[in-house]
Every structure is written in structure tokens, then in C-alpha cells.
Amino acid sequence: MGVDVAIQPEEETAKEIVLLIKRSAATDVLEFAQNRVQLIGIRLDAKCPVLNQTIRHVSQQFPDYVFRAVAILRNNKTIIPSGDDLYLQRDQVFFLAETENIIKVVELMGKSEEKLKRIMILGGRNIGRATARLLEKENDLEIKLIEVNPHKTLRIADELHRTLVIQGDGRSFDLLAAEGILETDALVSVTNDEETNILTSLLAKHLGVNKTIALVNREEYLPLMAPIGVNAAVNINLITSNSILRLIRRGDVVSLASLPGVDAHIVEFLVPRAARIT
User: Fold this and answer.
1) Which string of DSSP letters, residue by residue, matches the chain?
2) Whether the predicted pLDDT of 25 surpasses 80
3) Is there a contact between 18 and 135 (Cβ–Cβ < 8 Å)?
4) Mean predicted confidence (pLDDT) in 34-45
5) Domain containing 74: what range?
6) Residue 78 lies in a domain
7) Residue 262, domain member (yes or no)
8) Which of 88, 114, 133, 182 measures 20 to 30 Å from 71, CA to CA?
9) 227 in the same domain as 136
10) Are 66 and 136 found together in one domain?
11) What is the pTM of this model?
12) CA–CA distance, 51 with 268 (Å, rounded to integer)
């Protein structure tokens, strides 16, 4: 039909959710340089060993840790940091590093990259099904999907092969308890009700679930998710926008991307041979 590229917003959102599950300590994950480089967000808590130290001092202390702090979200304000800026509690810091070195950055910030094996998905719409389908490619995961619509539940059960599909209301604490929410490592709430996604994520966090991911439609809500206790929030419009921008080449610009609540863009570009910095 002459269409060069087709973008499926639900599939792109599912891919981001899977990245967030694999990077259990991250609030955000973006990939660059053909996935050789990642940009991740980490929220600093009281256990962070480098609190109240400058970025320069931390880099000098750990010369073998090759990374860059590229942005800090502090009190809903964006800071593009210099070496003199401090790491403070409750900061959401965005780090850039080679993908293989991300684990070192996570550990340096006092986090652990735990393997999330038991995944519960609330909502059987396209995003929930796509997420389960992608997770099924991982051999050692236990996946459950809860859908309230009985007819849709039957269709999903036929479509998915390694996912336990349950018909019920994901807002019911009794149902969540019966299906093992207390033993769940990650809750992905992607129903068509934004309030349900946020409230169930907060409930799961209160019950000790390691990581909660909520689908949030209003972009103005995204910066609020980490402070109130939701580990990560995904927004289908923002993810789709990033997917489109990655495909639009403008001279030496390879891709553009943005992060929830951050008043800045990430630009990936090729350095021309004749550039002054080459």
C-alpha cells in the first residue's frame, strides 16, 4: 500500500513495559545506539550511598564506573547537572551508560537489579495481551493476566500459551489475594481506567510487590507517580511520539526522545567528520 513503516502504539507500550520489568530498579528506560546504550531513571532513596555528594566527587571515587548523569528531576523541576550538583534524596536521576554497564550504575545508587519472575497483569486489552505475549518469550517467568470481561477472557486464553488467564475484577482485593498478589514480583496495571491503574499499583506496593507499573493517560500525572509510590508509569501517547521521532531523520540527527515530566529532549546524532569536536 506504499506505507514505509507501521507503528503499533500498544506494541510499543508493551515493549517499554518489558524493558522496565527487566530493569527492575529503573523508573524509565530508553535505548540508543542500536541498543548498545541505555538511559535509565533511578529514584534515590535514603539507602543511596552517594547522597549529598557531588557528581564530580562520585565520579572521582569510582573511576571504573563509566556513566553520565544527564538530568535530575527535583521537585518537578528539571536540572541539567554539572559536576558540582549534588545527589539528593528523592531525586529522580537519569543516567546514560553502555547497556552492559547499567548494572554497575544501579548498584552504585544503592539499588539491586533483581530478577522479577512472577508477573501479574491487570487488563486484557491490547497492551496487556502484547505485554504477556512478549514476556512469554522468557522461559522462567510465571505470568498471570486478569480480565473482567468473560468473553474477552476466553479469547485471550486461546491467544496466549504460557499465561494463566483469570476472569475477574482486578480491583477486588480478595481476588488479588487469592491469585497470589503477596508473592508477586511485579504488577502491571494497564486497564482502560486510569484511576484503577494507579490505585491498584499503590495497593500492590503497600502489600510488598517489588515493582509496580501503571498505564497513565494524563501526561501531567506522570511526574507524580514516583513520589506517591508507583515505581514506573507508561503513557501511550508519549511512547508513540518517541517511536515516531526515532524514525524521522533530520540530517545527522538519528533520533529524538523525551521523558515523562522532564523539560528536555534527548537527541541522538552522528558526529560529522568535519565537526569541530571530531
Assistant:
1) ---S----HHHHHHHHHHHHHHSTT-SEEEEETTTTEEEEEEE--TT-TTTT-BHHHHHHH-TT---EEEEEEETTEEE---TTPBP-TT-EEEEEEEGGGHHHHHHHTT-------EEEEE--SHHHHHHHHHHTTSTT-EEEEEES-HHHHHHHHHH-SSEEEEES-TT-HHHHHHTTGGG-SEEEE--S-HHHHHHHHHHHHHTT-SEEEEE---GGGHHHHHHHT-SEEE-HHHHHHHHHHHH--BTTEEEEEE-TT-S-EEEEEPPPTT-TT-
2) yes
3) yes
4) 93
5) 25-113+249-278
6) yes
7) yes
8) 114
9) yes
10) no
11) 0.86
12) 30
CA 74, CA 157: separation in Å to the nearest integer?
Answer: 43
**Overall number of domains in the chain:** 2
Q: What angle do CA 35, 36, 40 make, to 5 degrees?
A: 75
Residue 62 pLDDT > 90: yes
Evaluate if residue 248 carries a pLDDT over 80: no
Residue 153 lies in a domain: yes
**Mean pLDDT to the nearest integer, 189-200:** 94
| Same domain (yes/no): 36, 106 | yes
- Considering the domain architecture, whether residues 55 and 121 belong to the same structural domain is answered as no
Both 231 and 253 in one domain: the answer is no
Residues 201-223 have pLDDT tens digits of 999 999 999 999 999 999 888 88
